[in-house]
Amino acid sequence: MAIFIQQIVNGLQLGLVYALIALGYTMVYGIIKLINFAHGDVFMVGAFVGFFGYTVTKLPWPVALVIAMVTCAAIGVLNERLVYRPLRYAAKISALISAIGASFFLEYFCSLNFIFGPNYISVTLPLKVITWIIDGVRITNVQVIILVTVVVFLTLLQLLIFRTKLGAAMRTVSFDHDAARLMGVDVDKTISFTFAVGSGLAGIGGVLFGFAYPEIWTFLGVMTGLKAFIAAVLGGIGLIPGAVLGALIMGQVEIMTAAYVSSQARDAVAFAILIIVLLIRPSGILGRNEPEKI
Amino acid sequence: MDKNKQVILALVGVVVLYIILKALIMTGVLGPYWQIILNYALIYVIGGLGLSIIYGFTGQFSLGHAAFVGIGAYSAGLFAITFSHYGAWGSLGSLVVGIVCAGVVGYLIGVPILRLKSDYLGIATLGFNFIVYDGLQNSDKLFPAMGGAQGMTGVPQFQTFEWYFVAAVLVVILARNFVFSTHGRACTAIRENETAANVVGVSPARTKIMAFTIGCALAGLAGALYCHNYPYLNPDSFSFLESINYLIVVVLGGLGSLAGTVITAVGWAFLLELLRLVLGPFYAFRGVIYALILIVVIIVRSQGIFGGMEAPFLVPQIGRRKPRAIVGS
Amino acid sequence: MPLLEVKNLGINFGGLRAVNKFDLDIERGEIVAIIGPNGAGKTTVFNMLSGYYTPTDGTITFKGKPLNGLQPFQIAQHGIARTFQNIRLFPQISVLDNVRIGLHPRAGYSLVDSILRTPRFRAKEAELTDRALDLLATFGLEDKANIKASSLPYGAQRRLEIARAQAVQPDLLLLDEPAAGMNPSEVQQMVELVRFVKEKFNLTVLLIEHQMGLVMNLCERLVVMDFGEIIACGLPQEVRDNPKVLEAYLGRGAVT
Questions:
Q1: Cα atoms found within 13 Å of the Cα of residue A90, Cβ hemisphere only
Q2: Which of B83, B224, B280, C34 is deepest in the core (most CB within 10 A)?
Q3: How far is C234 from chain A (nearest CA, A)?
Q4: The total number of structural domains that make up chain A
């Protein structure tokens, strides 16, 4: 029993990190219907910036976290300006291809020797790991930090979206660009802001990932990002609660498969579940399937 | 220009192209290394046309095309190893096996999955790609010959350029014949407006499954040829990143353009190697430049390099056979 | 026996009753219009007739055969064709191919025939193309055969959509607001076109329209819907003088 609960805790830890990344995918998809392929790579940059922050420059880790967040937000905005905006009114697939290009660019650029280099880097944690054992279940202070950070930022995000003018603008734009423009919403600015928020959250996710799984490299964002994206789809893409729900399920599925089936099958099982869920609910668990209007 | 003349010119063009390439190979300008790249480019043409039929013409978003190339490669490879004592017949048979296996799996997956639309379909096919990839990684547990993560070796090799060239030309002709027929038009109708296609009597489910099966079968042929071009088969060659490459070829080529897919497939296959040649000491920048080329091209030509264009000799002539009916009489 | 028999048709969307107790018989050769205010459920009836929505209850019988549970493409092959309120062509392909797609179910050659370009393919494809060109000629679009459908002017797009529906060789043609967005002279042309097509192809027509000029001019019988139900039906004159109809259009209290 203790082992099972331990797996749930581990799955929760992974799911929480996925949640921070999945939010960015879902927000961007909600507002411009684009699979932001480069988002996982922004998350990777966050992991590196945070790591260099608290090791090389010896900043306290919360400061490094904020720096990573700001850096990632800036990259997200820049990415939108330079790579996606020129294609906003082109076919969706063209924007997806340029997103793939942006993703490759970030990966290969960061792999250059004078940036982060192509190798795996072991993360030295900026804080002493304290482990509590409760009824045979090990819980670390890192896990608590992850949980608290995610809850805090989720709350802030909810407040931002439902209690502020910018949030109202985001909701309007995601509903209809032209209607939003007619109502005096600055659509470009709102989209940039959405990218900033989503990318900032991914930056935090990157730093926390480094704490939880202390080995990072420049292609980290490919699989992790993809799984976070899948999580967002699983929950119902475009919906913030859906992203969190999907991420938590994804975390549990992966850890449970690794523990009880086969660690090599963890991706396959996660994706098989995704396909089955989509066949039953084509718009994800929380997504509403709206029939086409004729 | 007269249509028959165009077709004859196209055939002459194919022969001339063959003679030029053959001459380059014979004189050693294209060494064994470049020959393999050339074969690879032709394999890309075949697989790319498969995805072109699925996505470019029928509009069914697939992010898992490499999975079917992989299924073709491994099934053909296993067959070729098993029947290697039949020589060329074993190899030829392996091509059929690759086509059939990928086609059948494509059909079986397509039936449930093609009910999904646009991005969701893309994600489901992507998921399928991962399942196949994990399966190949662990394949040695079922068939030790498949080698699992270590990769499969021992497939009889034939890097004879003619095989690849003939296969690619045949596939271009078959794809063209398919696209310019009522079945191909049904596919285009589904891409353009599924609701309208349905209402004029085109079954969306049947049409999509047909296109998907044909596209996957072509991917299978590409895979089957692949396993004879490289002595070492590795699951990584069929990961979702390879599916992304196929998608890039089809989109950059221009959706719904056969010639665009063919030219872009060859260009894309050679691009990385050319970068290697051109960059020399700055080779580390290869990936960055590759990414920048991708971004710039799609921004400059968002409808694809050859979007909305088709090589004239591929388009059949349209004309009346019988004189115009008298209206309203 | 009527060509189309609709009995007690009804459909729910979630908790909403969109169409209720809809009955309609149409005889061969009639032109019937469904009119009514926006949101009355007219297009919903069309969508059930063409198989897009599955009715919650009721039956649709066409040429003596029940249509319930059939897919749109099967209903098309049974002989019901339709157009859409917001034109739905295949925009990126040629005008000719738009019509040739309508001929797909009757193409008469297989996938293998087309891939191998067999003699059967050549014969049937040429025949199919001739038929498509004839249709285009009938609708005055033959000289536009090779241009993209999306580059046709609006009126021509409406005509092409009807031409494509004709390719299905229907017995019953459903037209959803064929004159929407047209000026009076274009409306008059549309009236003539519908009449001409009906005569030439021996059709039965059911149409939805807001342009009363067209309706009064063209139709032998009207069905008026409001809030998902039929509130009146009969000859144009009768319907026009029906107080219930005036009420539906002008609002309650306007008539008394």
A1: 20
A2: B224
A3: 28
A4: 1
Q: Which residues of C touch A294 (CB under 8 A)?
A: 43, 47, 52, 84-85
H runs (alpha helix) in A56-140: 61-79, 92-111
Instruction: Tell whether C109 and C213 lie within a shared domain.
Output: no
Touching partners of B (3+ C-beta pairs < 8 Å) = A, C
| A250-280 tens-digit pLDDT | 999 999 999 988 888 888 888 998 899 999 9
Tally of domains in chain B:
2
* Interface with chain C: mutation pick from B199, B212, B327, highest number of C CBs within 10 Å: B199
End of a domain among C147, C168, C183? C147
Quote the domain boundaries for residue B7: 1-30
Please check whether residues C171 and C242 belong to one and the same domain.
Answer: yes
Cross-chain residue pair A275–B113, CB shorter than 8 Å: yes
The answer to whether residue A115 neighbours chain B at the CB level (below 8 Å) is: no
Please state the ipTM of this predicted complex. Answer: 0.92
User: C71 and C135, same structural domain?
Assistant: no
Interface test with B, best of A104, A229, A234, A237 (most B CBs within 10 A): A104
Query: Is B246 part of a structural domain of the chain?
Result: no
- For the cut 80, the answer to whether the pLDDT of residue B323 exceeds it is no
Do residue C32 and residue C119 come from a single domain?
no
Residue numbers in A near B119 (CB within 8 A): 35, 233, 237
Is B93 within a domain?
yes
DSSP-derived pairing of the beta strands C221-226 and C229-234 = antiparallel
Residue C169's CATH number: 3.40.50.300
DSSP E strand boundaries for chain C: 4-13, 16-26, 31-35, 57-62, 65-66, 80-82, 172-176, 204-208, 221-226, 229-234
> In which domain, by residue range, is C78 found?
4-90+157-250
CB atoms A275 and B127 under 8 Å: yes
Is A267 an 8 Å CB contact of chain B?
yes
Residue found under tokens 């002459």: B12
Name which of C35, C34, C39 is nearest C4 in CA terms. Answer: C34
Q: Which residues of A22-38 are buried (b: 16+ CB within 10 A; e: fewer)?
A: bbbbbbbbbbbebbbbb
- CATH code: domain of residue A250: 1.10.3470
Distance CA B200, CA B21 (A): 47
Which percentage of chain C shows pLDDT scores above 90? 76
Of C128, C73, C92, which is closest to residue B193 (Cα–Cα)?
C92
Q: How far, in Å, CA of B10 to CA of A289, rounded?
A: 49
CB contact under 8 A, A86 and B299: yes
Instruction: Specify the number of domains making up chain C.
Output: 2
**Residue B212 within a domain:** yes
Q: Which helix or strand (DSSP H or E) is residue A178 part of?
A: helix A177-182
Q: Which long-range contacts (CB under 8 A, 24 or more apart) does C235-241 make?
A: C240/C216
Partners of C144 in the beta sheet? Answer: none
Contact C89 B328 (CB under 8 A): no
Tens-digit pLDDT profile for residues B274-285: 888 888 788 888
Judged by CB atoms closer than 8 Å, whether chains meet at B202 and C104 is answered as yes
C134 and C245 belong to one structural domain? no
With an 8 Å Cβ cutoff, are C92 and B192 in contact?
A: yes
In a domain? residue C118: yes
Interface check for C52 against chain A (CB to CB < 8 A): the answer is yes
CB contact under 8 A, B327 and C111: no
The reply to whether C22 and C141 lie within a common domain is: no
Q: Is residue C152 part of a domain?
A: no
| Rounded (5°) CA angle B240-B125-B38 | 45
- Residue C24 CB partners (closer than 8 Å, separation 6+): C4, C5, C6, C32, C223, C230
pLDDT value, residue A143: 94
Q: How far apart are CA B321 and CA C139, in angstroms?
A: 20
pTM over 0.90: yes
Contact criterion met (CB < 8 Å) for B295 and A105:
yes
C138 and C205 belong to one structural domain: no
